[in-house]
């Protein structure tokens, strides 16, 4: 809240609060995506095809949701999904 002291204009104070809220949301979403990615990689390491496929499905939907919310750029999301898919397909 100390940052609000720097801003004198009401709209600037609100902008600071809104940006903090969005940053927190984006951070939690990015963290969740990393967790889903690690689950896919762990399943691939363990050579468990079913677990890898199901983890990939969950991870790709979550990455798509993050993309639609504006957390990731569409190309970034596509790249993440592509790399995970290639990992899982390499098992077969």
From TrEMBL:
Pfam families in UniProt: Ribosomal_S20p
Keywords: Ribonucleoprotein, Ribosomal protein, RNA-binding, rRNA-binding
Record-linked Gene3D superfamilies: Ribosomal protein S20
GO terms of molecular function: small ribosomal subunit rRNA binding; structural constituent of ribosome
Cellular component terms (Gene Ontology): small ribosomal subunit
Taxonomy, superkingdom: Bacteria
InterPro entries linked to this entry: Ribosomal_bS20, Ribosomal_bS20_sf
GO biological-process terms attached to the record: translation
Transmembrane segment boundaries: none
Task performed by this protein: Binds directly to 16S ribosomal RNA.
Family: Belongs to the bacterial ribosomal protein bS20 family.
Stated name of the protein: Small ribosomal subunit protein bS20
Taxonomic lineage from the root: Bacteria, Bacillati, Bacillota, Clostridia, Lachnospirales
Gene this protein is translated from: rpsT
